[in-house]
Design brief:
Number of strands: 0
Distance between the termini: 56 Å
CATH superfamily of the largest domain: lambda repressor-like DNA-binding domains
Order of helices and strands: HHHHHHH
Number of helices: 7
Strand content: under 5%
Helix content: 55-70%
CATH topology of the largest domain: 434 Repressor (Amino-terminal Domain)
Radius of gyration: 17 Å
Structural class: mainly alpha
Number of domains: 2
Amino acid sequence: MNSTNERESFSERLQQALKNAHYSPDSPTRLAREFNIRFEGRPITVHAARKWLVGEAIPTQEKLRMIAQWLGVPADWLRFGGAEAPGAQAEGSASARFESADVKLIADLQRLDEHHRQLAREFIRMLVRLNHPTPQK
């Protein structure tokens, strides 16, 4: 498969994964915004997102892994295609996929100073322990 076909095939899989996750496959602005909220590295531009959607470029491996995790698809399938069902969850990705309200909460958390972020983390850990107590041995 030549590189043009690879980019176009990637674009089709990305659009399918976005649809399956209830995101518009037609909005590079939304793709860039949702990606940047989740990605810890350098943010992407709307232009870069558009290139992914129209088959002009393929993201780096690091970005591709994050997109796959976010959309709940295997990274190998997203990059190369194959027999893997597009709706299949990558191992461990179900817990890593966020709803819009969760993404907003994370964005708000990032706006806090370090002291208040630490307090919020401790509070969340306490809630998790209360809701999922470890079994007594």
